[in-house]
Amino acid sequence: MTVAEFHSAPGPRPSAAAPLVLHARNLAKSFGPTVALREAGFELRAGEIHALVGENGSGKSTLVKILSGVHHPDRGVIEAGGRPMVLATPRTAQANGIVTVFQEVLVIENQSVLDNLWLGTDRFFRAGVPEKQRRQRAQECLSELLEHPPALDARMEDLELSDRQACGIARALLRGPRVLILDEATSALDFETRTRLFRMVTRLAGEGMAVVLITHRMDEIDEIGDRITVMRSGETVATLEKSAWDQQEIVRLMTGAEHLIQPVARARRTADPERQPVVLKVEDVRLAPERAPINVAFRKGEIVGLAGLEGHGQDRFLKLLHGRHPGGVSRVDGNGSVALKNPGHAQDLGISYVARDRRSESIFPWMSILENFALATIAKDSARGRYSPAKSESRLAKFTGQLNIKLGRPSDAITTLSGGNQQKVIIARWLAADPSILLLNDPTRGIDVNAKRDLYRLLGELAGQGLTVVMLSTEVDEHVELMDRVLVFRENELFTEIRSDRLSPETLVGAFFGAKVEEDIDN
Ligand SMILES: Nc1ncnc2c1ncn2[C@@H]1O[C@H](COP(=O)(O)OP(=O)(O)OP(=O)(O)O)[C@@H](O)[C@H]1O
Questions:
Q1: Beta-bridge partners for 382
Q2: What is the CA radius of gyration of the chain?
């Protein structure tokens, strides 16, 4: 795919006067004392791509879990073709043509790609699908979604996060849904796969499939949304046609206030990072055999982005900075430099790492919110071998305010939080460890538009106080808004560096595809 193809507009959209495939009215749902949905309603036309937006915890996932037969509403009705539908189980929802892909990547790690794609379909397609046809259809679907589809016999655990998520989406598409629900399912996808998915979904919508798209990314909604329904505190507050929305209006509806999008964090910082001392140094590191060695230094108080198409080395590079592979990376301070030996050593030297895949790498679902938060600071909150939860709790309270984390009681299970709020707890965990260098692996996945600004502002403030931030992000706008400079990776090499004064979506995407905007960094 070329840059031009990435920027080309999708094809014509289907008529807005298409029949309703689904109509939900007056839905309410509580979990114990938490009211997740108060009064939610929603209608979906055949062939439309309908975006559902709202702040973290506003009830989007609860609404789609009701439509998917996972939760049962306390009140309200769902109709199809004027008749009430009882969606008792996920299987009933699927039998009604409603197929959902959730935010967390749900795959069976030790099974093949092919088995994962057809998982649970034996009763879905009553007659069963013969092996040859399974392979062919799986291959076709993956080839449309991925430029380099994995082998059908590859094991799921060997795939990158983005490819695993693509397999989850392919599994849904192979069922030929009437209604496809993507619940933040695009957030783990790399740039290229997301573009391919949007083309595929637009094509299928043109053939009559209705799509519900939950995303925190306005660019995605602008790109393919036909209508948008905004949720606030468990209520659906408005549905807008494409011609009637702009971002400020959507944010206003989401927050219920004249809460305009905040200006960039970078402008608020005072320190000039280029005059600060080096704190982390990478020397002659190769991301793959035969690739050019990388030499780069990070300074106190700067925010550096890592970018590139998925799988081009930026993920591996970030992990190297956390001591995953010994050799070549040193922590530098006034006393000299120390080579990192392993992640534990890196942590001891003040380097914290926030992992990308919340589900498998960061969250401990059997633990409470407080326990999940306190993991990195237990030693700090202990005296003479005795741990004081009260200390952790007061620290959590500080971050709850700064990052606007919506939670009930700190002792509640972490799984009672919405996805975005879980992610904020993990970020707070590592900020609380008070690192000198913070490594973030795509941290704003699943975080709503205002909460992102809260995080940017906090990172900007902390950088102003001397924290060095290195952040891998799959969001082009995030780089443009936040970073002092961005390192772009291509084919396991550091391809170029773009400083903030040259950063724009065009220069960055151009660099992904091999266009340089500045001199080579090693010139
Ligand atoms: N199983 C559960 N038990 C208790 N509370 C829950 C449960 N599921 C959701 N909630 C609560 O219901 C509210 C709505 O959550 P929901 O996941 O629907 O929000 P969301 O809009 O999808 O958020 P996000 O954008 O962060 O994914 C939140 O306050 C959440 O904590």
A1: 387
A2: 23
Closest residue by Cα to residue 182 from 158, 156, 216: 216
The SS3 of residue 376 is helix
Distance set, CA 177 to CA 80, 100, 441 (Å): 14, 9, 33
Q: How far is the CA of 56 from the centre of ligand 1 (A)?
A: 8
Ligand 1: lining residues by beta carbon, under 6 Å: 31, 34, 36, 54, 56-62, 406, 416-421, 446, 448
Structural domain contains residue 261: no
User: Are 185 and 321 in a shared domain?
Assistant: no
Which residue has the CA at smallest separation from atom 7 of ligand 1?
416
Could you tell which of 31, 214, 218, 455 is best to mutate to test the pocket of ligand 1, judged by most ligand atoms within 8 Å of the CB?
Answer: 31
**Are 120 and 177 members of one domain?**
yes
Q: What is the ipTM of this complex?
A: 0.98
First to last CA, the chain: 29
- Residue 8 counted as domain residue: no
In a domain? residue 471: yes
Tell me whether residue 272 is exposed, middle or buried, using C-beta atoms within 10 angstroms of its C-beta: 0 to 12, 13 to 18, 19 or more: exposed
Q: What pLDDT, in 10s, does the model give residues 281-300?
A: 999 999 988 899 999 999 99
φ, ψ for residue 291, nearest 5 deg: -90, 155
The answer on 92 and 71 residing in a single domain is yes
pLDDT tens sequence across 381-401: 888 888 888 889 999 999 898
Q: In sequence order, what are the beta bridge partners of 319?
A: none
Task: Give the ligand 1 atom nearest the CA of 412.
Answer: 4
In this structure, the answer to whether residues 215 and 360 fall within a common structural domain is no
Share of the chain residues as helix, strand and coil, in percent rounded to the nearest 5? 35, 25, 40
> Which helix (DSSP H) or strand (DSSP E) does residue 351 occupy?
strand 351-354
